[in-house]
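Supplementary Note 2. Why include the ligand at all?

Several targets in our set were suspected to adopt different conformations when bound, so apo predictions alone were not considered sufficient. For every target with a known small-molecule partner we therefore ran a joint prediction. The input for magnesium ion is given below.
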Amino acid sequence: MFNKLLSPFSSLDIGIDLGTANTIVYVKGKGIVIKEPSVVAVNQKTGEILAIGSEAKKMVGRTPAYITATRPLVDGVVSDFEITEQMLKYFKDRVSKSKFFLSFRPRLVVGIPCGVTEVEKKAVNDAAKNAGFREVFLIEEPMAGAIGARLPVQEAGGNMIVDIGGGTTEVAVISLGGIVSSRSLRIAGDELNSDIIRYAEEEFKLALGERMAEDVKIEIGSALPDEEVKETLIRGRDLITGLPKEIKVTDEEIREALYHSTEIIIKAVKDTLEETPPELIADIMSRGIIMTGGGSLLRNLDRLIAQETKMPVKITEDPLTAVARGCGVVLENLDELKEVLIPMEYLEPPH
Ligand code: ADP
Ligand code: MG
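The joint prediction is reproduced in token form.
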């Protein structure tokens, strides 16, 4: 009854892609309203949360040592229940700010990685309930990504999604509203940054910051060569003299640094294909493997996957928001799309 009374305001329902690198918030009827880094600044002395999102990211490295930037999702899994709850509450309050029904408890569709344990699903559910959401629906991120990419996930046909985020890569084959086979690995965008840091240390005795490594990856990183050679300067600290040092690197060197990780991603795609029934393979062959997530933007990674799997590969439009847009589609069509959600009955004990 109370819910019925509130239903005209249901446009406040929200979808959140709580990614390891970026948090994207979708508001029903409005679309994507927030894109922020998944960073929380915590005062380690008091445990107090000082800032969330871009504001927290700005504080990193500019504050006393006892203020640390935490990423609440390590490898895609909730590592700190309290921080996740605060983050969900923060984003909820931000979208409902200046509304007269401030105390309104919206519904939430939230993406989580495939293959998280029941305990972790319950932790996300509880964190969201504590953050003030009335109802919580969990969806596997590749499923949300596939829906965001407008794949016909409910039909009896095969769809393959490769979602490369910051902390995790998820590979999934979807048919009839469910995940047929999947892989989740902890090699993704962040690991590529670490590869570059390790390479600079070994090859040039140069200590690089995480931000520098990511910039180089985005600027000249690739999985296969292009016709023209690209180069850029990297700046860091000389490990021998301790002084600042600048070195010129080429796309080929960065490719070498990333080679091992891109191989692991490709192996996961091949392994998943190997355990996929032949009928579904035929569908994937004609639809193509669909890539989502920021990591899919690594230059020519799509070409390398196509070459190695002999399948067509497409990067979805705006890959960084595909999961959030998929959560949004589910939010807008909850009744028709209920079957794609993770069943939650077991989480709520019968009254
Ligand atoms: P998550 O879902 O885990 O939050 P995202 O889908 O937001 O992750 O992707 C973030 C990752 O994408 C980061 O590791 C970032 O470095 C990487 N990324 C973003 N743009 C590019 C690009 N143009 N080339 C390569 N990597 C990129
Ligand atoms: Mg993601």
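The mean pLDDT is 90. The longest strand covers residues 178-185. Comparable summaries for the other entries are listed in the accompanying table.
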